[in-house]
Structure formats: structure tokens, C-alpha cells
Design brief:
heterodimer; A: mainly alpha; MetI-like fold; B: mainly alpha; about 75% helix
């Protein structure tokens, strides 16, 4: 069983390598064909043409495109993703500095999405056949149609501006010390023994994480409801009823277990999409993660940095999908017996 | 096709959605006649005025003004024009590319199917938001560029979903019968396969319009959408975000406009999906 899972993960990771190579090559070509000159950008505005030419040679921009890609790939495999033009720091270290904040946001959002999704799905199923069903159905469609971008703005407006209940800018209140141990602020603040920093960081995380979670919960809700419907057609549900179990026991003890599997798989796929959704939420809430870094890089046409961040997003999404596939295998007893 | 489409017009969801879209489209088309001011007209003596009914409101500006003294109502109305143009052309473009490839892929199968399938896989390994941002760096800002970026990102949605539908339809006997009658491949696809996949295609189209409205708002919000002199809801939000305490209504109004539009298209998509789905119709739902 463990061997099967390991083989599956290994096969998945192997399959991901060509995809990553192609994706990175495409990204590279796309960014190099843009009408922006990284050499001229990294020099002061009064640089002469000759100086720019010298810089182009130094950066290797005068060589053919495939050769440039091989040079870049060689560097990337050795952990060198190039130098950010705007910030004059290695792109790789900029990514690793901001990635933990983004992961923290994504995980918090996923927990909220899962809780709301399962709760809402059970509620939707519970309301089947009642007068409230069409209302609940309509509400879930309305929720489904609001993307994270709009949730971010709506929550910012209601809880940040109208009620002034929660902060909506940054990761932690200004003036508080920001520790850098693992990069995950929630963990680090506890490690250095600063509960006030932890509390402030939690408060700052509520709105962005909820915005993202709300956007992804309706899909989980609707899939859970429809898989509960499917499961209720199975004979073992009738049998459980005949054995005298209460409706609650049938639902929570028998139906939910079986309906949870397709829902979890979907939630995993959603997690990949959710991860890239952090970008917008970060921009709305000025949250110092990778998404904000990406938008700054894009505004300044900072090609090495765009490439590094773009690739990181692709890698993380690929890793999440691989993990979901393996989890599915672990959880599904039908796939275990081979 | 006449039957199912006429049938779908009896669905309350579709009717509500269509009337919502009609309102937005009217604003968009007749923006010049409906809007009280030019969208770019600045009045620096009246910046951040609240809506008319609030204390300090100016009847000249029914919904107040923004940080440059521009009429919010007029900008909302002209913003609807931008949003509808993007929604219409971007989703149409994505639909054409995606559905042509899906029909070729599903109908012919084999190597063609494999190549198109891998192309979609690679395309989809880029998160859509990231890909559209990168494309905007390359394309530069502007209405046409936004439309092009959305087409280049979202054609895969159509391609993936439609391909499996085409696969199912192609296996039907009447498609084989058409080939035996001497139809060319093109004739078979256009006359026999396409009518069967059309309901799904129309549904996807209306859902894509909702997505396009949101993506346009996102790109304008980030400052990588339409050019600065063209009013867009995303830009209005970004501007109002900075003066949120002085004038909260400026933030709320464009958000409400986007929500209204997105819900209209999603409601239409959901209504069409239920009323056009032949399988649901046959089972009497």
C-alpha cells in the first residue's frame, strides 16, 4: 500500500518534469520576445548606447535564444534564478522571502473553505424537499458567482471600512516586531514568545483568508450535496435505516463517509486554483506575499523576477495536484486492492 | 434548435438574467445619452462629493464624484460599456478558438487529439491569473489587449469541456450515417455534431462572459487593463480604495456593478444549462 503510493508519487513527479521544462521554456521565450530591454533597464537613464551594448553582452542577451535558455536553466538548477532588475537582489531569495506568507494565507483560506463547504453542503442536503430548498439553491448559485476578487473587496468594505472591526492592510500591525525564523509569521511569533504579534497577525489574516475561503466553499458545498444525493440511492443506506438507525446516524455515520471522498478530491483540485487566487487577495489587502511581489514585478517589467515567480506558482500548483492524487489513493479503499 | 431555445425562454432564471443583461447593455450602448457628464470631465472644485441624498451632496453629481472630481454615475455607465465590450468579444473569441479545436480534437481523435490535449494541459498548468498578468506585460495596456489576453488564457475552458461532449456525440449512429451519405468531414461536423454540442457551447459562453467581466476588473484594478483615459470598474475600485474613509460609496458602487453583471451572466448560464440540457428534459426535470 505504501509502496503503491510511493510509486504513484514518483511517477507523477517524473511526469511533472517535462511539463515544467516546457512551461519554463515557454515562459522564457515569451518574456524574452517582449519589447522591453533588461540591459537598458538595469542601467541609469544617462547610460550611453555603448554601455548598454556592453551590459547586453555581460547579461548574455546577445546570444541566440536557445543558448540563453540553457544558461538560465543551468543557473536555475543550481538555485540561481537571476537578479531582479528593480530590486537588485537575487530573484530566488525574494521568492523564498515571500512564499511562506502566501502559503500561510492559502492554508488558512483552505481550512475556511473546507469548513464552510462541508457545513454548507450538509445544510443544503438537509434542506432538500423543504420550502427552503429553492432559496438555498439560489443562494448557493449567487455565492458561486462571486469570485475571490469581489469577496475581498466586499469584506474589506463591510468589516474594514463600515464596521471598522478588522484591519485590512498588511500582515501585522505597524510597529510590532516581525521575526524571521521560518518565514511563517504565525509560527515565528510564537517561537519568539510574542503573543501580541501572533494575535495581530491572526487578525490581519482573517479578512484575506475568509475572502479566499468564501470564494471556494460553494463548489465544495454543491459537490458534497450532489454526492450525498448519489450515496442515498445506494442500498446500504436503506439497510442502515432498516437496522433502526436515526436519520442523523445514517447521514453522519454512513452517507457522509462515502460522499466525502469525491468532495475531498475536488477540494484538493480547488486548492491548486486557490493558491493562485492568493495573488488578488494579497493585492487587495496589501499582504506582503508572493502575489504582491508579482504585481510589482509586472508593473516594472522586471523580467527575471516575473519568470522566477511565475515558475514558482506553476511548481506549487503541480506539487499540490500530485499530493491530491496520492491522497486520493490513500483514502479510497477501492483503489488499494490491486 | 428552435425548440430548446424557445423552451429556455420560459425559464424564470433565464428571463430574469436576460432582463438584467438588457439593463446593463442599454447603459453600455447609450452611455453618451444616459450619462450626465463626460466620463473624463474633471471638476477639481468638487472632489469626493458624496451621493446626492447625503449631506453635502450635489444634485449635479447624483452618485458623487471621485478623487479628481469626475462624476461617478457617468463613469459607472461608461465602465459598463468597457465591461460589456470585453465580455462579448473576449468570450466570443475564446469560444471560437476553443470550440474549433475541441471539435477537431474530439471528432478526429488519434494523434490530433493527443497534440491538442497536451497543448491544453501545458496551457492549464499556468494559473490563469498569472498567465494573464504575464501576457499583459507583453501586450501592453488597452481594451483590445485585454480582450486578446482573455482569449489567449480562456480558450482552454471551452476546449476541454466541449471535447468530451464531441467525443460522445461523434459515436452516435446518425453521425456515421451522415458519413455514409457522403458528407465531408467538415459538413458532418457543422451539420451533425455542432447542433448537438450547441447547447453546451451557449451555456459555456454565458459563463465565460461573467469570467471576462471579472478578469477585466482585476486587470484594471492592478493597473494593467484598459488605458487610463478609458473608464473601467476595476480602475474606479483601485482609486476608491485609497480614499475609502472619505468616500465609501465610491468603493461600493463599482463593486455592486460588477456583482450585478457577474450574477446576471451566471444566472443565465445556470438557467440555460438546465433548460437546454436534452437529457434533463427527457427525464422530465
Amino acid at each position: 500500500m505504501i509502496a503503491t503510493v510511493i510509486t504513484l508519487i514518483a511517477r507523477r513527479l517524473l511526469a511533472a518534469i517535462p511539463i515544467l521544462l516546457i512551461v519554463s521554456a515557454l515562459l522564457f521565450c515569451l518574456l524574452r520576445t517582449l519589447p522591453v530591454d533588461p540591459a537598458a533597464m538595469s542601467l541609469p537613464p544617462n547610460a550611453t548606447i555603448a554601455e548598454i551594448e556592453a551590459k547586453r553582452r555581460e547579461m548574455g542577451l546577445d546570444r541566440p535564444l536557445p543558448e540563453q535558455y540553457v544558461i538560465w536553466l543551468h543557473g536555475a538548477l543550481h538555485g540561481d534564478l537571476g537578479q531582479s532588475i528593480q530590486l537588485r537582489r537575487p530573484a530566488g531569495s525574494l521568492v523564498t522571502a515571500t512564499l511562506p506568507a502566501t502559503i500561510q494565507l492559502a492554508v488558512a483560506a483552505m481550512v475556511i473553505a473546507g469548513a464552510l463547504g462541508f457545513g454548507g453542503g450538509l445544510l443544503l442536503f438537509h434542506l432538500r424537499g423543504t420550502m427552503l430548498e429553492p432559496v438555498a439553491d439560489l443562494v448557493s448559485i449567487l455565492l458561486l458567482s462571486i469570485p475571490e476578487f469581489l469577496w475581498g473587496l466586499i469584506l474589506l468594505f463591510v468589516f474594514g471600512v463600515l464596521l471598522r472591526a478588522l484591519p485590512f492592510t498588511g500582515e501585522v500591525a505597524p510597529g510590532l516586531p516581525v521575526p524571521h525564523i521560518s518565514g511563517f509569521l504565525l509560527i515565528d511569533s510564537l517561537l519568539i514568545g510574542h503573543p501580541d504579534v501572533f494575535y495581530s497577525a491572526c487578525r490581519h489574516l482573517v479578512l484575506p483568508a475568509t475572502a479566499l475561503g468564501l470564494a471556494f466553499s460553494p463548489t465544495i458545498m454543491r459537490v458534497l450535496r450532489s454526492s450525498l444525493f448519489d450515496v442515498y440511492h445506494e442500498e446500504y443506506i436503506q439497510q442502515a435505516r432498516l437496522r433502526g438507525l436515526s436519520e442523523r446516524q445514517v447521514l453522519l455515520g454512513h452517507a457522509l463517509k462515502n460522499a466525502a471522498l469525491p468532495t475531498l478530491t475536488l477540494a484538493g483540485v480547488q486548492f491548486g486554483i486557490l493558491f493562485s487566487g492568493t495573488l488578488l487577495v494579497e493585492v487587495i489587502y496589501s499582504y506582503p506575499g508572493m502575489g504582491n511581489l508579482m504585481v510589482d514585478a509586472v508593473r516594472n517589467a522586471d523580467l527575471p523576477l516575473i519568470q522566477a515567480i511565475g515558475l514558482t506558482y506553476c511548481i506549487v500548483v503541480l506539487l499540490i495536484n500530485t499530493a491530491v492524487d496520492s491522497l486520493y489513493l490513500v483514502l479510497n479503499p477501492k483503489l488499494r486492492v490491486r | 434548435m428552435k425548440g430548446p431555445l424557445a423552451h429556455s425562454l420560459r425559464s424564470p432564471k433565464v428571463l430574469i438574467a436576460l432582463s438584467m443583461i438588457f439593463c446593463i447593455a442599454t447603459c453600455a450602448i447609450f452611455a453618451g445619452a444616459v450619462a450626465p457628464h463626460e466620463p473624463g470631465e474633471q471638476n477639481l472644485l468638487a472632489i469626493l462629493t458624496p451621493p446626492e441624498w447625503m449631506p453635502g451632496g450635489d444634485p449635479n453629481y447624483p452618485l458623487g464624484t471621485d478623487s479628481l472630481g469626475r462624476c461617478v454615475l457617468s463613469r459607472l455607465i461608461y465602465g459598463a460599456r468597457t465591461a460589456m465590450l470585453v465580455a462579448f468579444f473576449a468570450s466570443l473569441g475564446a469560444m471560437i478558438i476553443g470550440s474549433v479545436l475541441a471539435h477537431i480534437s474530439g471528432y478526429f481523435g488519434g494523434a490530433v487529439d493527443w497534440v491538442i490535449g497536451r497543448l491544453v494541459d501545458i496551457w492549464m498548468s499556468f494559473p490563469p491569473v498569472i498567465l494573464s498578468l504575464i501576457l499583459m506585460v507583453g501586450l501592453g495596456i488597452g481594451l483590445g489587449k485585454v480582450i486578446l489576453a482573455i482569449i489567449l488564457v480562456d480558450w482552454t475552458r471551452f476546449c476541454r469541456v466541449l471535447r468530451s461532449e464531441v467525443l460522445v456525440v461523434t459515436r452516435h449512429e446518425y453521425v456515421a450515417a451522415a458519413r455514409l451519405l457522403g458528407f465531408t468531414h467538415r459538413q458532418t461536423i457543422v451539420r451533425e455534431v455542432l447542433p448537438a454540442t450547441l447547447p453546451l457551447l451557449i451555456t459555456l459562453l454565458s459563463l465565460e462572459m461573467a469570467i471576462a467581466v471579472v478578469v477585466e476588473a482585476i486587470l484594471s484594478f492592478v493597473g494593467l487593463g484598459v488605458s487610463a483615459d478609458q473608464p473601467a470598474w476595476g480602475q474606479m475600485i483601485a482609486d476608491a480604495r485609497q480614499y475609502v474613509y472619505q468616500s465609501p460609496s465610491n468603493l461600493l458602487l463599482p463593486i455592486a456593478a460588477i456583482c450585478f453583471t457577474v450574477m446576471a451572466f451566471n444566472l443565465l448560464g445556470d438557467g440555460l444549462r438546465r433548460s437546454l440540457d436534452v437529457r434533463l428534459m427527457e427525464t422530465g426535470h
